[in-house]
Design a protein that fits this description.
With 54 residues, the protein is mostly helical. Helices cover 72% and strands 0% of the residues. 9% of the residues are buried.
Amino acid sequence: RRGNAAELFSGIRHIAINILTNDKVFKAGLRRKMRKAAMDRNYLTSVLAGSGLS
């Protein structure tokens, strides 16, 4: 509903951070994993496939 965007977006952000933290394909820090997922679609699909969300 209206007015809950910040709370909903923070929940989505926590889910994304948990998925990237549990990723073992690319050994790097969280910031590098976030940047790589933003730039490389193949890495993004492998992360989502590994988490069971795709």
